[in-house]
Write a structure and sequence with these properties.
Elements: H1 2-13, H2 15-88, H3 93-111, H4 118-137, H5 146-149, H6 164-191, E1 208-209, E2 214-215, E3 219-220, E4 225-226, E5 230-231, E6 236-237, E7 241-242, E8 247-248, E9 251-254, E10 257-260, E11 263-264, E12 269-270, E13 274-275, E14 280-281, E15 285-286, E16 291-292, E17 296-298, E18 301-303, E19 306-308, E20 313-314, E21 318-319, E22 324-325, E23 328-330, E24 335-336, E25 340-341, E26 346-347, E27 351-352, E28 357-358, E29 362-363, E30 368-369, E31 373-374, E32 379-380, E33 384-385, E34 390-391, E35 395-396, E36 401-402, E37 406-407, E38 412-413, E39 417-418, E40 430-431, E41 448-449, E42 478-479, H7 482-504, H8 508-533
Parallel strand pairs: 1-5, 2-6, 3-7, 4-8, 5-11, 6-12, 7-13, 8-14, 11-15, 12-16, 13-19, 14-20, 15-21, 16-22, 19-23, 20-24, 21-25, 22-26, 23-27, 24-28, 25-29, 26-30, 27-31, 28-32, 29-33, 30-34, 31-35, 32-36, 33-37, 34-38, 35-39, 36-40, 38-41, 41-42
Antiparallel strand pairs: 9-10, 17-18
Helix pairs in contact: 2-3, 3-4, 3-6, 7-8
C-alpha cells in the first residue's frame, strides 16, 4: 500500500530518527514506571505509618485497659483486705479463719501482680504479713490455763474445779483459737520453703515479727529460709517448737536497697522440746536471756525438755548468754565462724558442746553446770574462756585442740575433770600456743577441785603441758575444803527444793516469789564462788592492805 511504501522509504532515508524515537519511548516508560514505584512506595509508607499509628493507639488502649483492670483489681483487693481484717475481730472462729485465708490469698496475688515492680509487690504483701503476725502476737486470755485446758477433764485442784461446764466451753474456744493461729503458722511455713533444699520460698523476702507471742500450740517452722529480719524475742512456747534445718541469710539485695538480716529469739521461755539443730545463721543471732524448762506433765505423761542446737553453722556473732537450761542442752557438732557467747548461763541437766569448731572467741564464763558437761573433740582457734564457773558433775575436755589462750581460772570443779583420756577412750587434748591458765595472777583467782580423780595429762608432743603441783593439781590450785563441800551440797539442795516447789505451785504470785528466790540463791552462789576462789595476798610493804 502507499503508506507502507512511504514508511519503508522513510526508514531507509532517516534510520537514526527511528532509534532516537525508540529511546524516547523507553525513557518515557522508565519515567512512568519510576513515578509509579514512588507513588507505590509512598502509599506503602503511608499505610505503614497508619498501621504504626493504629498499633500505638491499640497499644495505648491495651495499656489503659490493663491499667483500668489493675486499678479495679487493686480496689477489689483493698476491699477484700478491709473485710478480712474485720473478720479477724469476729467472735465466731470460722469467720476469723475465713479472714486468715483471705489475707493469705491476697499476699499470693500481690506477689504475682505483673503491673508492679517486685519491690512494690513486697510492700503490698508486707502490710498483710504484718497483720498476720499481729494476730499471732495478740494476747489470748485462755492461754494462761494451758496446762488445764490441755487435759481431757477438769483438774480437782485447778481453776475449773468448781465449774466443769465452763471448762468444756473454754476448752472448745481454746482449741478453736489454737487451730486458727496454727493455720497462720502453717500457711507461712509452706511459703518459706522450696522443694530444693536451702533455697528461698515465695514468702522468704518478708520480715516477720512474732515478738512477745504466746504459742499455746506446737510451732513447726522447719527448713525455712529467711532473707530479712525475723523476730521471736520475748516469746513463750507452751508446746514443742521446731526451727531446725533453717537458713537465716546475711543480707538481701532488692534493686537499690540492701537489707541486713538477723534472727532474734532472746528473752524467750520454752516449755517443751526445742529444735534449732542443723540450721545456718549467716547473720548474727541472739538466743540470750532465755529459759528452757525441764518438761511438762499432762495427766499421767511426762515430757522431758531438750534444747537442741546441734550441727548448726553460725557465720556471724551468736549469743546464748544469761540463759537457763532445765533439760538437756545440746550444741554438739556445730561450727562458729565468729564470736560466740554462752556466759552467765545455768545448765541444770546435761550440757553437750562436743565435736564443735570455734574459729573465734568462745566464752563459757560465769556459768553453772549441774549435770555433766562435755567439751570433747573440739577445736578452739580463738580464745576460750571457761572462767568463774561451777561444775557440779563430771567435765570432759578430752581430745580438743586450743590454738589460742585457754582460761579455766576462778572456777570450781566438784566432780572429775578430764583433759586426757577418759572413760570414753577419748584422745589427749593439746594446747598449741601457750600453757592453759588455771590461776589468774591479776585477779588472784585460782581454781578449786573437789575430786582427786582428775586427768590433766595432755599431748605434750604437739603442745604445752598442764604443770601440776605435788597434789596432782594445776599450779596455784587447791582442793575444796570439807566446809566448802558442805556449803555447796546444802546450797544445791536448797536450790533443788525451791525449784521443785516452783514446778508444783499454780498460783502466779507464789510462782513469781519462788522465781525471785531461785534468782537470789543463784546470785548468792556466784558471790560465794568468787570469794572462795580468791586468794588472799599478804601485804608486801608497810601500810598496804591485803588483797
Amino acid at each position: 500500500s502507499p503508506e507502507v511504501y512511504h514508511m519503508a522509504r522513510f526508514e531507509k532515508a532517516f534510520p537514526w530518527l527511528l532509534v532516537g524515537g525508540a529511546a524516547l519511548v523507553l525513557l518515557e516508560t522508565y519515567r512512568k514506571n519510576t513515578n509509579d514505584r514512588a507513588k507505590a512506595n509512598a502509599d506503602i509508607k503511608a499505610a505503614l505509618k497508619n498501621q504504626e499509628h493504629q498499633a500505638e493507639v491499640l497499644k495505648e488502649q491495651i495499656r489503659q485497659f490493663d491499667e483500668n483492670a489493675f486499678q479495679k483489681r487493686k480496689a477489689e483487693r483493698r476491699e477484700r483486705y478491709t473485710k478480712a481484717v474485720e473478720q479477724l475481730g469476729s467472735k465466731e472462729a470460722p469467720v476469723r479463719l475465713g479472714g486468715v485465708y483471705t489475707l493469705v490469698g491476697l499476699v499470693d496475688e500481690w506477689l504475682e501482680e505483673k503491673n508492679l515492680e517486685y519491690s512494690e509487690r513486697l510492700k503490698e504483701g508486707q502490710v498483710i504479713i504484718n497483720n498476720l503476725c499481729a494476730y499471732i502476737r495478740f494476747p489470748f486470755t485462755l492461754a494462761s490455763y494451758y496446762d488445764e485446758l490441755s487435759e481431757d477433764k477438769p483438774s480437782s485442784e485447778g481453776f475449773y474445779k468448781d465449774n466443769q461446764q465452763k471448762f468444756y466451753t473454754d476448752k472448745a474456744d481454746f482449741k478453736a483459737e489454737a487451730d486458727i493461729r496454727l493455720s497462720i503458722i502453717k500457711e507461712i511455713h509452706s511459703r518459706l520453703q522450696n522443694p530444693e533444699i536451702n533455697t528461698p520460698g515465695t514468702w522468704s523476702d518478708f520480715e516477720y515479727d512474732f515478738s512477745g507471742s504466746i504459742f499455746f500450740y506446737p510451732v513447726d517452722l522447719t527448713n525455712s529460709y529467711y532473707t530479712k529480719p525475723v523476730n521471736f524475742s520475748g516469746s513463750t512456747y507452751q508446746d514443742e517448737v521446731r526451727f531446725d534445718g533453717s537458713v537465716y541469710k546475711d543480707e538481701a539485695d532488692f534493686g537499690s536497697s540492701i537489707y541486713k538480716s538477723w534472727a532474734t529469739f532472746d528473752g524467750s521461755t520454752y516449755t517443751g522440746w526445742v529444735g534449732f539443730n542443723c540450721s545456718t545463721y549467716q547473720s548474727w543471732a541472739d538466743f540470750s536471756a532465755s529459759t528452757y524448762q525441764d518438761g511438762a506433765t499432762f495427766m499421767s505423761s511426762t515430757y522431758q525438755s531438750w534444747a537442741d542446737f546441734s550441727n548448726s553453722t553460725c557465720q556471724s556473732e551468736v549469743y546464748f548468754s544469761d540463759s537457763t537450761y532445765k533439760g538437756k542442752a545440746d550444741f554438739c557438732g556445730s561450727t562458729y565462724q565468729n564470736e560466740v557467747y554462752f556466759s552467765y548461763s545455768t545448765y541444770q541437766s546435761e550440757a553437750d558442746f562436743s565435736d564443735s569448731i570455734y574459729q573465734d572467741k568462745a566464752d563459757f564464763s560465769d556459768s553453772t553446770y549441774r549435770g555433766w558437761a562435755d567439751f570433747r573433740n573440739s577445736a578452739y582457734q580463738g580464745r576460750a574462756g571457761f572462767t568463774d564457773s561451777i561444775y557440779q558433775n563430771e567435765v570432759y575436755f578430752s581430745g580438743s585442740t586450743y590454738e589460742d589462750k585457754a582460761d579455766f581460772s576462778g572456777s570450781i570443779f566438784c566432780g572429775d575433770v578430764y583433759y586426757g583420756k577418759d572413760r570414753y577412750n577419748s584422745n589427749f587434748s593439746r594446747f598449741t600456743e601457750c600453757t592453759p591458765q588455771f590461776y589468774n595472777e591479776n585477779s588472784h583467782q585460782n581454781t578449786l577441785f573437789g575430786s582427786p580423780n582428775n586427768n590433766f595429762i595432755v599431748d605434750t608432743d604437739k603442745g604445752y603441758p598442764i604443770n601440776l603441783n605435788s597434789e596432782g593439781l594445776p599450779l596455784g590450785c587447791d582442793f575444796l575444803t570439807t566446809e566448802q563441800k558442805e556449803y555447796l551440797a546444802d546450797k544445791f539442795q536448797e536450790i533443788d527444793e525451791t525449784k521443785n516447789k516452783f514446778l508444783e505451785v499454780k498460783d502466779p504470785k507464789e510462782k513469781a516469789e519462788l522465781s525471785k528466790n531461785l534468782q537470789a540463791l543463784t546470785e548468792e552462789l556466784y558471790e560465794w564462788r568468787e570469794e572462795a576462789t580468791t586468794v588472799k595476798m599478804e601485804s608486801t610493804a608497810p601500810g598496804e592492805e591485803d588483797n
